[in-house]
Amino acid sequence: MPQPPVFYLFLVLCLLLAGGLTLAAVRRPHRQRLWPRLLAGWLAVLALWWLAYPPRRTVSANSSEIIVLTPGYQTDSVRQLLRKLGPATTLWRYGFSNTTADTPSLHSLQLLRERYPELRRLHLLGWGLPVAALPELGPLRLIMHRPTAVRGFQQAGWNRRVEVGQRLVVEGFFTAASAQPVWLSLRGAGRPADSVRLPAGTGPFRLQTLPKTASLAVYQLVARQGRNLLATEPVPVEVSTARPLRVLLLNSTASFEFTALKNYLGTQQHRVGLRTGLSRGLAQTEFLNQTAHDLTRVSSALLAHYDVVVTDAATIAAFSSFEVQVLRESVRTNGLGLILLAEPTTLPRALPSRAGFTVVPRPTAAARSQPIRWPESTSSATTLIPATLRLAAPARPLVTNRQRQAVVATQRFGLGSVTVSVLPQTYPWVLQGDGNTYATYWSTLLRAAARPLPTSTQWQVVSAWPRAHDPVALLLTSSVSPDQQPTVAGLQGAASVPLALAQAALLSEWQSGVFWPAGAGWHQVQLKGQLPYSFYVFGAHHWLAPEQRRRQQAAQNYRHRASANTSSSEAATSLPYPAAWFFGLFLLTAGFLWLEEKL
Fold this sequence. Notes:
By secondary structure, the chain is of the alpha/beta class.
């Protein structure tokens, strides 16, 4: 085999060095220890040559087993496995961005099966193979060597789509390497939004914040131990504007409560119709953000024009039998939402789904301002509580008092819902300048009661943790098949690519496609005639603990599978001797030459 020019150049340099050392030793005046000095010089030159071109030895290698290194592997584990399988076992690297290492890089497992036909078992070190790459193993048996567990955020969940005024809640579990206290914080727009302290450094956490502007936001979960930054993970959230609702307010008499609610709904661009009773047979009507129409009589046409009806007990009690029937059918079959501001005694008999709620009056001395809580409350709001609610399944509480007794509850009734509140006064929050509490309270009630939107077309990301360079499954639920292919593009200026859809065999409304993102960040699916759907793709080093757990679970089906042929195949191969031996020989001989010169 011809050698490169550097081989001959280095050979000439070594020969010249050996000749120079020999000539210097022969011409010395003192010829004591001549032969040891000549031998040491020749060995030193030979050691230099072997450092560059080490001699090789023939060993037997097991060609049926190969080691694949993935990110997160430990060097000690590699040494132990090589001692067990033999030093001639082939090593490959998979999933590394750095390709300058001495171990060859592997981009496809299919390449291993083609290059090593006798391969039967694949030893895997590190965090594991991507789930999409596992089918490429074919009949190979996967032997996982458990890596060191990833510390930091083990798991987290949050509502990835919220409306302005709806609280973002992040819950999960954190693990630190030491038992020292750890501070976890949720940061947005460069400032902390919420924080919590874990005294033992490990445990569950719950952080929350209230997004105030509609945008595609990326919050950060940060963990610190003293001044040391332990971990940081992205929390992407799509914050959208609140859905404009059509709200009908029916009040038996003028009250500050309905006036404040009307003004709040109007400022939030909801379409509002208000009917206030003045005397028997006489009522006053007002309209905000919509044209005037007849509110005198409750009819199916009137209720079809609204998403939510907010009324008091006296108004429902005064309904005619026809109006009661119309209200019940609108809630049950058309999805209308009903919010009742109940009296602290009993509920009207005409209330739909009345059996799910029972009003429990409180003694007059106990009916005072007390703290109440709901999931999106920013602080402990206080208000008058003259009664509580006792619920029957399937009713669920929305707002509770300090004793965790329901004061506002809701229940599904057919396609719609019925919400009952025994809180008579919430307008004082506005008078006290606490408009944020008032807004989140009524947003919670309206969101629970609003008529559901028809879902003609809906996108969904099937992958729990979409990652760059991994397939992301997208599911389209639509009653009509799109006439054009949707496209997917990143928001950082990347070109859009078409998304091929395949219809599900059992459900014709389901169509799925696979997208391979080239980088991390926000992406959008565009479909003609529909609003764009946004989703976030995480980077390769984001949320490693959930990704490691997912890879290990997916690899279980390949770990215990037996290959078609489990016999070992031995093959002869040559390996270089360790370079450390020759470096030690060079140090020993060079040291002898220096020491002999001083004697």
